[in-house]
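Researcher: We plan to redesign the surface later, but first we want a full-length starting point. Tokens attached.
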């Protein structure tokens, strides 16, 4: 009797797996065009209200920095503060911009280098003091030799982001 019960159970499991496999084989496969057409979903950091304006290239945004004009950019993250995630560097071709966060009110994950994100904020031109530039290099995990190469104040384009959107799919 035990053998029959065991055989019946094994047969049920075998049939269930066979049916499941056949159903998955019958499902239409997505083409690469369908996969590319998927709209990414994002995780919001900071102000989660997304502007309806499509993002512009970072290189375009730095052409006319303004402390009054909110811009929405899309660019690749090249570096992130490895202490807290309290700043990041975005790159777009030959353009790099340091991003800090409005009112030091939020941080981003430290492992997002290489991802393309959307950020909204004010793009301005500023002078970073030598001590601050060295501090940023230290936070980025730069070597002591690289940090010591930083001499004098650094003129750079920066952005104070009120929101950052990271793709989650």
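Model: Full-length starting sequence:
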């Amino acid at each position: 009797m035990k053998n029959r019960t065991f055989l019946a159970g094994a047969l049920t499991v075998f049939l269930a797996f066979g049916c499941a496999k056949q159903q998955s084989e019958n499902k239409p496969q997505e083409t690469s065009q369908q996969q590319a057409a998927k709209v990414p979903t994002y995780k919001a950091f900071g102000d989660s209200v997304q502007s309806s304006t499509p993002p512009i290239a970072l290189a375009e945004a730095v052409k006319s920095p303004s402390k009054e004009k909110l811009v929405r950019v899309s660019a690749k993250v090249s570096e992130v503060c490895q202490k807290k995630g309290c700043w990041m560097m975005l790159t777009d071709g030959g353009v790099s911009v340091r991003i800090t966060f409005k009112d030091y009110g939020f941080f981003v994950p430290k492992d997002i280098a290489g991802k393309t994100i959307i950020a909204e904020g004010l793009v301005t031109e500023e002078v970073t003091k030598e001590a601050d530039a060295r501090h940023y290099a230290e936070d980025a995990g730069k070597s002591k030799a690289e940090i010591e190469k930083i001499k004098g104040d650094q003129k750079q384009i920066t952005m104070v982001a009120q929101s950052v959107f990271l793709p989650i799919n």
